[in-house]
Design brief:
Helix content is 38%, strand content 33%. The protein contains five helices and nine strands, in the order αβββββββββαααα.
Length: 234
Amino acid sequence: MPRRLDARTGSHLLWASAVLATLQACSVTQQQEAASGHIERELLSHTLHIETGEPRVLDTPHRSIRVSENRLFRVSQYDASGNLLDQHRQYQTLPWANHVIDIQLGELSVQRETDSEGHFRLNLLDEDIVPVDFEQLRTIELEARNSTEVHAEAILLVDRELRAVLHEASELIYDNLEEDDVDQWVQRIHRLSELGLKEEASQLENMLILLTTGDPHLQGDFIHALDQSNQAQD
């Protein structure tokens, strides 16, 4: 009759097999680590860059601006014995996303935040900017700051003709609308279009329609006056 293993002997064999499998796995892992070695990355420089676009002299109220972040690394690859196998430089450029930009307009300071692509839109007719004295505005200073050591600055100049347009446009958009009648509202909208500010003209028209929602009669008069004026111009 063939001899059978008792329970104790079988248990010892299972334990021994498990230990052997663990040792083999560790050996394979160590061999893989020895073969791959390790890589080190050393940061050599970290800078920011503000792309203001062209021309450097603003001749429209709007400008899309992008901020990028640049890093330079020294990459070193070693074997398991610590011997240097390879060394090279690696450049990395990324958008400076969701960060605050400081903007100086004469004595006025405002902030804007970059989006996920590192862009933000500068609009000189934004409500928090129009208090500036446009007639005296010569330069716009931009600053992106990550730390004391890592920051970037850029300057935009403001065209003389644009300063005059901004001064008039800010009054057309923000001066007390309640004191005007519907014909004067229409005149404001058309004058903005004549100044080349069609976006602002459309925004003012939509805002006035919303403001008169609670007074259907006044809203109807405004829309009628606007339609008549458009037909007259056509």
